[in-house]
UniProtKB/TrEMBL annotation:
<feature type="repeat" description="TPR">
    <location>
        <begin position="145"/>
        <end position="178"/>
    </location>
</feature>
<dbReference type="InterPro" id="IPR051939">
    <property type="entry name" value="Glycosyltr_41/O-GlcNAc_trsf"/>
</dbReference>
<keyword id="KW-0808">Transferase</keyword>
<dbReference type="Pfam" id="PF13181">
    <property type="entry name" value="TPR_8"/>
</dbReference>
<feature type="region of interest" description="Disordered">
    <location>
        <begin position="532"/>
        <end position="571"/>
    </location>
</feature>
<dbReference type="InterPro" id="IPR019734">
    <property type="entry name" value="TPR_rpt"/>
</dbReference>
<feature type="repeat" description="TPR">
    <location>
        <begin position="179"/>
        <end position="212"/>
    </location>
</feature>
<protein>
    <submittedName>
        <fullName>Tetratricopeptide repeat protein</fullName>
    </submittedName>
</protein>
<comment type="pathway">
    <text>Protein modification; protein glycosylation.</text>
</comment>
<dbReference type="Pfam" id="PF13432">
    <property type="entry name" value="TPR_16"/>
</dbReference>
<dbReference type="GO" id="GO:0016757">
    <property type="term" value="F:glycosyltransferase activity"/>
</dbReference>
<dbReference type="InterPro" id="IPR011990">
    <property type="entry name" value="TPR-like_helical_dom_sf"/>
</dbReference>
<keyword id="KW-0802">TPR repeat</keyword>
<feature type="compositionally biased region" description="Low complexity">
    <location>
        <begin position="551"/>
        <end position="571"/>
    </location>
</feature>
<keyword id="KW-0328">Glycosyltransferase</keyword>
Amino acid sequence: MLGWFLSRITGKASDPLALYHAGAFVEAERLAEERLQKNAADRKASLAQAMLLVDRGRGKDAIEIAERLLAPARKDAQAWLVIARAHSSVGRRKAAGEALASAAKLAGNEPSVRAELALHALSEGRVDDAAKHLERVRGGGPRVAKAHSELGADLLHRQQREAAARHLQQAIATDPNDAVAHANLGALRKDEGSFDEAARLLERAVELQPALVEAAFNLAMLRIQDRNWSGAQRLLRDYVAARPRDADAQYWLANALVGDGDVAGARAACQAALRADNQHARARWALVMSQLPAVPMSVSEQQAGLADFGTELDKLALWCRTKAPEGVHEAVGSQQPFFIAYIEDNHREVLKRYGALCTELMGQWARRVKVPEPAPARGGKLKVGIVSAHIHSHSVWHALLRGWVEHLDADRFELQLFHTGMLEDAETKWAASRVAHLHHDLGGWTSWAKAVSDAQLDVLIYPEIGMDSTTVRLASLRLARVQLAGWGHPVTTGLPTIDGFLSAEAFEPADAQQHYSEKLVALPGLGCAYPPTAPKRKRPTWPSGASRRTTACCSRRASPSSTRRPTTRSG
């Protein structure tokens, strides 16, 4: 802020009032004191002192100074401005308005007066008037920045996003240290999907004002979206330290902890959320899922986790059916029993109970909004849809989907892809060129449900139910006559809305059907066309005179190319 001042008031460094309006408060106070010691009647020094007193909550003392200055002649706009600000600081809007009117008559085009008029209009809810005042401002300073910042925040609350962004940008340009403007513009950009810019703005807000916990919360949501679990945890721990009764923040802390495999910590965060709000449906849902250990340290811990999962699931189902608030279906998919797939056991019965609850809750929503029945059978090409969050370079895409997209006979099948994920790359573009239609970037899960329903599909395939919140919500609905799951997540879904599970002969033993609630369809071989890799061979070059002796080395186990984590989304 001092840099802004130095670049604009060259030649006025001896004016304490100009220093104050430029935001150089320390310098203004020092200079005012020096000048008042020499001359107690120094007008500009007195006004600067009065402005500083208002900022410190000493409005009565500030008014005494201003009234003294107005006594000989009531034509000092800055004295009226002091009085207006003093009255405004204690909520005397009428008195503040009268003083501002006097200031405006005398110096209506001064930035400090115009900014105060805008702030006064905002305090009375006159948003349009505030905007008109700021349009006439020619200059800067902290109060101008504050007026733009507060108007931007008000417009953001009113969902006037474009106008809000303009004023928040102007606030930051006027005062680069305005943490609140950074935080609000960051929140706006986050909601728009401009995540990189949002992260920069929110990081700056937290840097400028660490106690601005709203910025920390929004930044944590971006960290979760990027699967930066430890970064999200740090921010959310700071947030809940300041606001321990915020149930939603405790819930998202649980999400971040699950991302790192700390299910014990996640359980504690869920319990804290429920102590703050025992109607928090997603926290109850997450508490059930966090019973499953990510990496069990013993067989007994693994078995105890399975037993606790079943017990808590039954408690959740009873609560949902008897005490849950309206909108409890939003909890479906917010967390999923991801880790159960890595416990060697038959999970059919417990996942059937889980699936029954998912479909029951989603079915209530479907009946309320009147989701149409699936399209009846008809002649011609079979209309097939595939719903996946991973229609891009991803293990699910390469292992299953790409081969299906490439080799399904276009003369027999009309294929549509519903890409519910966020990432796009060359594989996404290739997929779009191979199918009748690729749907992407439709917004929330309700928009996806409508798009899939409107497509009137004969067959709907979900390759990886259990890895994405949108996918499991859609899969819990009946949107096509035949609905199938794939082995992108290799465990039964338990959903009564899923008719068949596409697995592979190479994977399944003779008694495999008893592990599935769906009809098991074991496709030949691996059940997919996995494209072979073709690494380029290169003859090694040897240093001159080096021996080409073959050296034995120890064998190493291949490590997985990627680690799958539960997908969590903000909002």
